[in-house]
Amino acid sequence: MAVYFFYGEEDFNIDTEIEKLRSKLNPDFISMSCQTLDNPEYGELINALRTPPMMFGNMLIIINAEDYFSSTKKQFEDNELKDIEESLEHNQEGTDIVFVVKIDREEGKKPDSRKKLFKILSKYNAKEFQVIPTYRTAEIAAWVKNKAKEKGLTIKDDAMELFIEQIGNNLRIFNNELDKLQLTAYPEKTVTKKMIEEICVSNQDLFNITNCLIKNEKDKALLEFKKLTDKKHPLEILSAIQTILRQWIIIKVKANAPVHEVMNLSGIRNEFRINILKKELKDIQTKELINLKNNLYDIEYRLKKGEVIDSLSEVECALIR
Length: 321
Hints:
The chain is an alpha/beta fold. It folds into three domains: 127 residues, P-loop containing nucleotide triphosphate hydrolases (Rossmann fold), CATH 3.40.50; 63 residues, Orthogonal Bundle (Helicase, Ruva Protein, domain 3), CATH 1.10.8.60; 118 residues, Zinc Finger, Delta Prime, domain 3. Helices cover 56% and strands 11% of the residues. The strands form two sheets. Strands 2-3-4-1-5 form a five-stranded parallel β-sheet, sandwiched between helices. Strand 3, helix 4 and strand 4 form a beta-alpha-beta unit. Helix 6 packs across helix 8 and helix 12 packs antiparallel against helix 15. The termini are far apart.
């Protein structure tokens, strides 16, 4: 079998590749044949790498390895790295091993390629999964069309334009929205602009929440948020709000930069819209936007890690903190 090294900011595409490998396993024994480890210590990692497949068929071992490349976490000793390298070189027949390093798209930091572990893993099936920049709308549209085709759908041009305008470049949200549109369109196969307007959350909905928060109208922000939870999971709403906050921060920080630079960085392709936002954000401190973004990022991270019991309440607390 094979060893893989998947890393990058586009976690949806990473998850898709892992799911392809998982789909090859015997579904009757999936709970035993698929193992996921979160930054295991040396001993646990070596044991996993040397574990032979059992009687139920092939195995898939997924190793979330973000901490291995962190500057604040303990790293492997040279003799430990040698053992890891040898174990990978003699990977058990019938076992796929996937090292995964998901990067926060807001940080934009890649794993340090100078590290010995990076060099070891790069010898195998290494692939970087990059986020499609928001200004590359043609590339985003091509991805969405392909994903829609997998679901038996086609999207009209005007619907696609609105779809991208509302969602931006978050592929996970696109996929979730396509699932809903598939049900809405049935038995038809074509997604129309009207369907997008009725089913998908618009930037204006998200703007209403964020605008209320900035004005310290937290009661109104919570009402707007609760309305959206009828359409979306709180995690999806958080992710979308993060995108808007990122655009606002860019506009504030780059207030004196050429407009084409702001357009490229923010993904907002409308110069008039950028000028309007500059005026609306004039009296808001950049620090306020960053603090709000950090609060929302914290709860988003905990939601993804499965550390939140009541997601709705936790998000509401993050919004008004």
